[in-house]
């Protein structure tokens, strides 16, 4: 029920899905730089996950998706400077999180983590800052300027259009909103019109 120090070059999606009963996974002292989405998919009973002493710089937003039984997570001694927003949102059972040995950019991108640290019931190691300069070697908890300096916006995909384009521009005509999509490689320009009933853009004209 445990896998200790497998020598892996990277953590790919669903890499351990053939081991559904795994409870403890140690991936220490490898040379990972990235943990991808759904890297631990299928490990429904995993309780302990230690990924220490690697070279991790990037963790995908859904890297820990599905690990609802995980109680202990260590990402200590890696090269993390930032974490994607709400990366721990699936970890309903998390008791302890270790982020020691990483130094974070404590700018606006870290605001979500700052707020999460204040709200979580988990025990979390100190999160140290490498920047900005005024916060170097201080704890993220001690950053006091987020409330009035940061405005964050979550973008949601509204409509996907099947066009490749070098530029997109909007314009108004007779109180309607239009979008022009330039496609010089196709020798045309698609014009879309906002549909107030369907609440999306529909094809209006194609200028060759």
Structural account:
The protein is 6% helix and 28% strand. It is mostly beta strands and 208 residues long. It folds into 2 domains: 1-153, Ribonuclease Inhibitor (Leucine-rich repeat, LRR (right-handed beta-alpha superhelix), Alpha-Beta Horseshoe), CATH 3.80.10.10; 167-207, no CATH class. The strands form 4 sheets. It has a 6-stranded parallel beta sheet, with no helix packed on it. A 4-stranded antiparallel beta sheet has the order 11-12-13-14, with no helix packed on it. The chain is extended, with a radius of gyration of 23 Å. The model has no long low-confidence stretch (mean pLDDT 88).
Look at the structure and give the CATH class of the largest domain: Alpha Beta
- State the CATH topology of the largest domain: Leucine-rich repeat, LRR (right-handed beta-alpha superhelix)
Approximately how much helix is present in the residues?
under 10%
Gross geometry: extended
Q: How many individual β-strands?
A: 14
Structural class: mainly beta
Distance between the termini: 63 Å
CATH architecture term of the largest domain: Alpha-Beta Horseshoe
Count, helices: 2
Whole-number radius of gyration?
23 Å
Low-pLDDT runs of 5+ residues are: none
Main beta-sheet annotation = 6 strands, parallel
Order of neighbouring strands in the sheet with most strands:
1-2-4-6-7-9
């Amino acid at each position: 029920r445990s896998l200790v120090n497998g020598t892996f070059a990277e953590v790919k999606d669903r890499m351990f899905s053939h081991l559904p009963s795994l409870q403890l996974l140690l991936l220490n002292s490898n040379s990972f730089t990235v943990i991808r989405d759904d890297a631990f998919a299928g490990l429904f009973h995993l309780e302990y996950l230690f990924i220490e002493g690697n070279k991790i710089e990037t963790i995908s937003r859904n890297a820990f998706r599905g690990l609802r039984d995980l109680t202990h997570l260590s990402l200590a001694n890696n090269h993390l400077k930032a974490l994607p927003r709400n990366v721990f949102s699936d970890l309903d059972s998390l008791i302890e999180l270790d982020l020691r040995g990483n130094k974070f950019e404590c700018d606006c991108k870290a605001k979500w983590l700052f707020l999460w640290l204040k709200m979580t019931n988990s025990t979390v190691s100190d999160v140290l800052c490498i920047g900005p300069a005024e916060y170097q070697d201080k704890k993220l908890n001690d950053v006091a300027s987020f409330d009035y300096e940061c405005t964050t916006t979550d973008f949601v995909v509204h409509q996907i259009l099947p066009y490749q384009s070098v530029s997109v521009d909007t314009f108004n005509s007779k109180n309607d909103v239009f979008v022009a999509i330039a496609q010089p490689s196709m020798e045309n320009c698609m014009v879309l019109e906002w549909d107030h009933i369907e609440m999306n853009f529909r094809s209006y004209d194609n200028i060759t």
